[in-house]
Design goal:
The chain contains 10 helices and 8 strands. By secondary structure, the chain is α/β, with parallel strands linked by helices. An 8-stranded parallel β-barrel has the order 1-2-3-4-5-6-7-8, surrounded by 5 helices. α8 packs parallel to α9. 40% of the residues are buried. The mean pLDDT is 97. The structure holds 2-phosphoglycolic acid. The site of 2-phosphoglycolic acid has 13 residues, from β8. 2-phosphoglycolic acid binds next to β8.
Length: 246
């Protein structure tokens, strides 16, 4: 299984280096049988890369610029993230969409730029509470994914894509979807991929209040390849419990 830790802006670079250094052998054990991806703020990527150089733990960035190079003060290009040691990049996380007004078109552009720069994009999609209540979830997911498939169809070479379904109402709330609707959502996403980009190499992740307490809900979901974990990834023992439960 794939376990992606999203550290968000919760820890400073020295705090992240300390967390990983103190638990390095533990992380290494976890990635002997699983894929472990740590997503720190961009400032920590290079130092983390040095620390993890002889390990199977991979690094992801939390976002990237939608342009390749130029006069864009404050932006960080996908090429720079890759040069510093990132292998993956979160794209269109709901916090980026909702707090920084990132649209699905921008997210799609970032995903294709990331892919073109040898990063595997982890595109985050998910409906807000009001859309969930109105049963608009599948429509929202289609709207968020279609621009990504369009961009991926235009890429010159086949690139891998990770899709993380994270219902916005489940992020950081302790709430999780029930098993059956969640299974249907993943079936729907797989169907959409088959229709829009038949040969796509992709993985499906779930994110939103994943913890050692909630993990059992997700165990029997067909075709789920892994998890995107926020809060619970800040405590190594809690993160380990989640991984060890598989
Ligand atoms: P959470 O966050 O696990 O704290 O709910 C998940 C995410 O935002 O990626």
């Amino acid at each position: 299984m794939i376990f992606v830790a999203n550290f968000k802006m919760m820890l400073t670079t020295p705090m992240i280096i300390k967390l990983v250094r103190e638990n390095l052998s533990g992380y290494k054990e976890l990635c002997a049988t699983n894929s472990i991806i740590l997503c720190p703020p961009a400032t920590a990527i290079r130092e983390l890369f040095s620390l993890l150089s002889n390990s199977c733990i991979k690094i992801g960035a939390q976002t990237c610029s939608s342009t390749t190079t130029g006069a864009f003060t404050g932006e960080i290009s996908p090429a720079d993230l890759a040069a510093c040691g990132a292998v993956y990049c979160l794209i269109g996380h709901s916090e980026r969409r909702n707090l920084f007004y990132e649209t699905s078109e921008t997210a799609a552009l970032k995903a294709s730029l990331a892919a073109n720069n040898n990063l595997i994009p982890i595109v985050c999609i998910g409906e807000k509470k009001e859309d969930h209540d109105r049963e608009n979830t599948l429509e929202i997911l289609d709207q968020q994914l279609n621009p990504v498939f369009q961009r991926f169809n235009e890429l010159e070479r086949e690139c891998e894509l990770y899709i993380a379904y994270e219902p916005v109402w489940a992020i950081g709330t302790g709430l999780t979807p029930r098993k059956e609707p969640l299974g249907n959502i993943f079936t729907h996403i797989r169907g959409l991929v088959a229709k829009k980009h038949k040969n796509l190499r992709y993985k499906l992740l779930y994110g939103g209040s994943v913890s050692s307490k909630t993990i059992s809900i997700f165990k029997e979901i067909d075709g789920l390849d892994g998890f995107l974990i926020g809060n619970a990834s800040l405590d190594f023992q809690e993160f380990k419990k989640i991984v060890d439960s598989f």
